[in-house]
Amino acid sequence: MKAREIRPGIYWVGAIDWDRRLFDALIPLPDGTSYNSYLIQGSEKTILIETVDPTMQDFLMDYLADLEIKKIDYIIANHAEQDHTGTLPVVLARYPEAKIVCTPRCKGMLIDLLMIPEEKFTPVADKEVLSLGNKTLEFVYTPWVHWPETMCTYVREDKILFSCDFFGSHLATTDLYVKDPWRVEEAAKRYYAEIMMPYRTMIERNLHKIEEYAIDMIATSHGPVYDKPELIMRAYHSWVFDEPRNAVVLPYISMHGSTHKMVDYLVGALSQRGVKVERFDLAVTDIGKLAISLVDAATIVIGTPTVLAGPHPNVVSAVFLANALRPKLKFASIIGSYGWGGRTAEILTGMIPNLKVELLEPVLCKGLPKEADFGALDKLAATITEKHIECNFK
Ligand code: FEO
Question: What pTM was computed for the model?
Fold first, then answer.
């Protein structure tokens, strides 16, 4: 296999994981992913930027063999997570003189996670510089994108930012660069929603920080390289800074159809009033799609039957996730049907402390929804519409 040159002396030596369908045993990967590792041959030093997931170590080692790399001086570990570092022990065994360049915090994590000996590390400070002869690397701390130890690596002469997970997309493709912007942007939005959104305030700071650099190319560790960085910079700005949209996200479960009738009615009542609704049946939905919708929505309405005296367990799982992702939501409500009682609304409202939302009056009905219940749903739709108009959500 041949490495792919992205600039003179800079090669992509990563792995495309076409078949991976789950990350962290949680996050759906409908389009697979890639683990992008890069080799830079400077006039005096050779470095490797990150490695690959250990399941795909042969790809990286074959590329290095193909390039006839005899010595690696430094391996840059922008992030300690194993999809970036899992092949470090194999690379170190083949290139024992290589030192690992990372933040001090990353060093501690790599000792914990991979039991790499302490003497293998050369920690760097924020904005510290390393010369490869004809190329100059600058290390830019970008904490909490998405672990505390994360940093980016900037190559001054080529104006390339090696951004690690920042701006990444889970997308298996042979396109080295973005060829299909719409597809990449959706994959990057899914990635942002699931991995970066919980740290939005830190993302804000780090976006401002990297904007101090002239960047011609963003080479992430997942998905294609951005040879037109403005695409992903604009998208991140929108996801991070823009006001929520005039949209409701409606995850729900229905057991015998009553909650389903309420959901259908509310979707109609909202859409008639000009509010966009994205509806997710949690029995079958891809939670990544739900996460994408949470990036922009102003309101969440949770639909659930009462079962075992509380919300349906699938709803509990989705609400736990929504709370952990900390989206920009401003309003929330609950709808659903119960048989004889329960603590559904109380349990759900206690589960969302991270959501800085105004709770709108829940609509819970006994058995099938009746005229008064549909009236209450109309009232909820009208309230949501008024709130969105008052806030000028577009
Ligand atoms: Fe790509 Fe945080 O791992």
Answer: 0.96
